[in-house]
Write the structure tokens for this entry.
Amino acid sequence: MSKVLIDTNVLIYSVEKGESRKNEKAIALIDELITTNRLAVSVQNIVEFSRVLLEKVSPPQKHDDVIKYVCRYLELSYVIRYDGNTVIRAVSIAKEYKIHFFDALLVATMQENGIEEIITENTEDFRKIQWLKVKNPFG
């Protein structure tokens, strides 16, 4: 089975309990992907996830808890990385599809790693990419 990338927003819902329905769905989905060895995350997702938990949620998560979450995802996921060439490709994708740069960077990173499916709450921009299968687990 092919890998599925989980976007940052789903990762956030998996640890933030403010919206219990989304929290439960995110946890179940991630657990299923871990069990079937299909969970993929990008280094970008891990960076965004950490920043949101440390700086954007109220109250902020404890640093030790964020480290624990990150270690769990690094251990249980197929982690995809990017380099300078990926950034160049992302700039081209952002221009071609008129999407935000960081969404384009995820697309370029996925493309380089042969991942064709993303699970995200942010479907609008990703649906512009014809080869990409986009699912919203909450909608």
The domain at 4-81+115-135 is CATH 3.40.50.1010 (Rossmann fold). The longest helix spans residues 20-35. The mean pLDDT is 96. Strands lie at 4-6, 39-42, 78-80, 117-119, 133-135.
